[in-house]
Design goal:
- The structure is a single chain.
- By secondary structure, the protein is an alpha/beta fold.
- The chain has a single domain (about 20-210, about 225-270), classed as 2-enoyl-CoA Hydratase, Chain A, domain 1 (Alpha-Beta Complex).
- Helices cover about 50% and strands about 15% of the residues.
- The protein is built from 11 helices and 10 strands.
- The protein has helices spanning about 45-60, 80-90, 95-105, 110-120, 135-145, 170-175, 180-190, 195-200, 210-220, 225-260, 260-270; strands at about 20-25, 30-35, 65-70, 75, 125-130, 130-135, 145-150, 155, 190-195, 205.
- The strands form 2 sheets. A 6-stranded mixed β-sheet has the order 1-2-3-5-7-10, sandwiched between helices.
- A hairpin with a 2-residue loop joins β1 and β2.
- The longest helix has about 35 residues, at about 225-260.
Length: about 280
Amino acid sequence: MTDATPDATPDASPAAAPLVRHAHERGVTTLTLDSPHNRNALSRRLVAELHAALAAAAASDDTRAVLLTHTGTTFCAGADLSEATEEAGKAGKAEEATAGTGASASGPLGLVRLLRAVIELPKPVVAKVTGHVRAGGLGLLGACDLSVAGPGASFAFTEARLGLAPAVISMPLLPRMDPRAAARYYLTGERFDAAEAARTGLVTLAAEDPDAALEPVLAGLRKGSPQGLAASKALVTAEVLRVFDRDTAVLADTSARLFASDEAREGMTAFLQRREPSWAR
């Protein structure tokens, strides 16, 4: 679920700058993840702001589609490990960790709610990726209906290197990715580029110029009727939502249990301290 960041959690004061910026042009609402200091990690505050922005887009009669993009060199690094290690430390036991992380905005069930909000949104969600995507960020990308990745994009499932597994994010990803590719990248944590992401089904398009590649996509969405887009999206997301209905409880529990384990604490601590974990050979 996570790759995260060794940097500090952003200031949550009311005066703090928003972590999700909004813009609107000709039927397309652009939501920009703007927390580059921690690589757009899925902190509690960013998740809450993204939920609110998605709800506003859903309620807007002027919005035909949502474009999700980012500032900085990373689209999304996954969960905020600073928050995750804090919650795991408070838990003490796996059973307590399941309740603690599952209830928070950045825990397994919080991530489920965010991914499901993207999938169930009655407007198409299009991702534009020009930087790195790691771990839980891949789940957010996979929940989007369409996606374009530029030459600067890179992707990696880093969970196994931290004592974790891509449990919750498998729900939007495995129904869409090539099974052999998923097995390779889940297990090895290797980085791969935009062309490989498109080949494996992780993204829709790899393009040298993502903005140019998006033009016909957004033009097509602007011509869609609200009812037609919502009903068409429901058809292509139906199987993914059936996976959510079937597997959420088991995979959220698996994720919380792994986060509370000694191995995961070692893996996350090693990442934050910029060192190799004890099991690395």
